[in-house]
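Handout for the seminar on molecular recognition.
Each group receives one record of this type.
Step one: identify the two inputs.
Step two: read the structure output and locate the region that could contact DQA.
Step three: write two sentences on what you found, then compare them with the reference statements printed after the record.
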Amino acid sequence: MSPPQPTATSPRFFVLNGPNLNLLGTREPSVYGHDDLAALDARCHACAERLGMTVECRQSNHEGVLVDWIHEAGRRAAGLVLNAAAYTHTSVALRDALAAVDLPAIEVHLSNIHAREPFRHRSMIAPCTIGTIAGFGPLGYELALTALVERLQATAGAPPAGAPSPRSPSHPNPSDG
Ligand code: DQA
């Protein structure tokens, strides 16, 4: 069966990347790999298309901008993939923003934060997410998008991914625009 095609009512997910991730490709490639942010975004878009959904990918180095985008995701998206980068370990503001919106969110890290410096082991945002994926590089974003789709289908009572029935947009975006 051919994969579902995104439509105007396909679930929209946000992928938000935090500080210094605009430097992917040149930033510590032994830790973060050689793919740049454009390649990561392209991978997310291709994955979203395969899953029959749409995705908006954004990056900011500024905490308040990320807070605003989480609020926007709460109004316009059905789910959120968040790599808050260094703010993961420090930001009460991001944690509060996630707690304030009624949105399934998954925390992603390219590197395995638990195998790195102790200050990276603590996540301020993890309690406000449905799960964390760390250490799989860009694949982690695809895993997170896939998990969000499964979560939406489970909450909508639809069959899980891979089931024979066609996947319908059972959880349209809260609002358009
Ligand atoms: C990161 C891990 C963080 O500890 C770090 O500050 C980052 C990137 C990751 O994707 O592995 O900037 O979130």
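Reference statements: The beta strands are 12-17, 54-59, 79-83, 105-109, 131-134. Residues 25 and 34 are 4 Å apart (CA to CA).
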